[in-house]
Amino acid sequence: MKRFSVFAMLLLLLGVSVYASDKDEDDLKVPARGKKARLQVITDPPNSDVYLGGKFLGKSPINEMEVASGRQTLVIVDQGYELVNIRFNVWPDSLNVYNARTVIPKGSIEVTTIPGKCNVLVDGDAADFTDNSALTIKNLDAGDHLITAKCGKKSKEMLVKIKGEETIKVTIDATKK
C-alpha cells in the first residue's frame, strides 16, 4: 500500500510540473502596478461608459488617457447593460488598446404565419396577431424563446434563438403537424 501511495505522489508531481511548463510565458506575467501607462478604448458603436478599476473614465472612445498600470477590471456599460467585464493587463510605459464591437443583448423576431391570420405568443404571453403580413416583435432578451402561432383550432410552436441586435425571420406553418 505504501508503494502505491509513493507512486501516486510521483505521478501527481510529474503531472503538475508538466502542466506548469505548458503554461504560456505571457500568461504568467503580471504588469507592474501603479506606474504610468496609457489606455485607448474603442467601442463600436461609440458612446459607452468605460470604467477601469472601478473608476469612471468617460464615454468611449477613450483616446490615450493616462492611467495606472497593473492588472485591472475593465467594464463597459451601454444603455444600462454591462457588455464587457474583463481582467485587463495595463502595461507600464506603453499604449494599451481595447477595441471591441459591443452588442446590446436584445433582438427582434419577424413572424410570418400560415394561415395568414394567427395570434402569436412569445413564451406563453400574447404578443400580437398576424393579419396576412409579418409581425415584428422587438426588444426580446437574447436567448431561446418559444413562439406559438394559434390559428383558430390549430396551433404550432417553434423554439427560436434570439441574438443581440439582430432580427430573426421565421415562418410558422400551423396547417402542418
Please provide a brief summary of the model.
The chain is mainly beta and 177 residues long. The chain has 2 helices and 14 strands.
Description:
Helix content is 14%, strand content 59%. The protein has two helices and 14 strands; from the N terminus they run ααββββββββββββββ. It folds into two domains: 29-101, Immunoglobulin-like, CATH 2.60.40; 106-171, Immunoglobulin-like (Sandwich), CATH 2.60.40. It has 177 residues and is mainly beta. The strands form four sheets. A four-stranded antiparallel sheet has the order 3-2-5-6, with no helix packed on it. The protein has a four-stranded antiparallel sheet with strand order 10-9-12-13, with no helix packed on it. The chain has a three-stranded mixed sheet with strand order 4-1-7, with no helix packed on it. A hairpin with a 2-residue loop joins strand 5 and strand 6.
- What is the CATH fold-level name of the largest domain? Immunoglobulin-like
Tell me the total number of β-strands.
Answer: 14
H-E string? HHEEEEEEEEEEEEEE
What fraction of residues sit in β-strands?
over 45%
**SS summary, helix count:** 2
The structure class reads: mainly beta
Major sheet: 4 strands, antiparallel
Q: Output mean pLDDT.
A: 87
Q: Percentage of helical residues?
A: 10-25%
List keywords for this structure.
177 residues, Immunoglobulin-like, 2 domains, four-stranded antiparallel β-sheet, 14% helix, rod-shaped
